[in-house]
Amino acid sequence: MAMAMRRPHLRLLLPLVLLAACLALASGTPWTRLKNRFRKHHVDFPQSPADFPDNYCEMMMLKRGIYGTFINTFIHAPMRSIQRVCSVGGIHISTGLRKSIFHFTVTTCRYDLQIDSYVEENYSRHIVIGCWNRLPVLYVE
């Protein structure tokens, strides 16, 4: 007698497929959220034009939903360039932190209590960022 080929039991296969899908999705979530938060808080490329002179910080902090933050820096470079700091474009300085090899154009917004407004400072400097899974997730002021 010839043996009939047996099909895999779907009752056993389906839970394994679902488990694998859940693990794959869950493993990417923290990096995605942190990378998106980093982008929202610190990346502005190309630099957004301000409605009025000296109004860039007020506009950006409101637009990004982070008004009230005492200090925040926006990096005016493509995300790909910033990501390189987490690999070949940066130097390891401590656990998870890397300093860029090249200068980046940045705008630092500091809240001044005396004038009840943000003060803008523009620089070209090295940046220090925290990296996780070769993605920028933290800007070190």
* Low-confidence residue ranges: 21-25
Rg calculated over all Cα atoms? 23 Å
How far from one another are the termini? 77 Å
CATH topology: P-30 Protein
Q: How many domains make up the 3D coordinates?
A: 1
Q: What spatial order of strands do you see in the largest sheet? A: 2-3-6-7
Q: Specify the biggest β-sheet.
A: 4 strands, antiparallel
Reading off the top of the CATH hierarchy, the class is best stated as: Alpha Beta
CATH homologous superfamily classification? Ribonuclease A-like domain
So, CATH architecture? Roll
What's the helix-strand series? HHEHEEEEEE
Mean pLDDT level: 85
β-strand percent reads 25-35%
Number of helices: 3
Helix content: 25-40%
Number of strands: 7
Structural class by SSE content? alpha+beta
Shape: globular
Brief characterization of the structure:
This protein is of the alpha+beta class and 141 residues long. The chain contains 3 helices and 7 strands. It has one domain: Ribonuclease A-like domain (P-30 Protein), CATH 3.10.130.10.
Key terms for this structure?
141 residues; alpha+beta; P-30 Protein; 4-stranded antiparallel sheet; 3-stranded antiparallel sheet; 3 helices; globular
